Amino acid sequence: MHEVRVVLPGHLRTIAKVTGEVAVAVGAPVTQRAVLDALEADLPALRGLIRDRATGRRRPFVRFFACEEDLSHEDPDAALPDRVSRGEEPFIVLGAMAGG
Question: How far, in Å, CA of 72 to CA of 23, rounded?
Fold first, then answer.
């Protein structure tokens, strides 16, 4: 098992009643889907807020980053960077903004 660090935006931390980073245990391979599955299992209040419950797709205005890369449009079953799976870098869930 890998301990993956997850950074959530403030409003999701409030809903989940957590502060700071969250650590989740993820088996290999460490993917977006595996991290989000573990996060939702540990913090059920987040189910349906990051991903659509029916389709499993990322919600609009939610972005994923790791190692300074935007992974929002990557295959959810693609392996995350090794530095994330080793716990050296966090997987970041970020609320995007729109408007002008």
Answer: 20
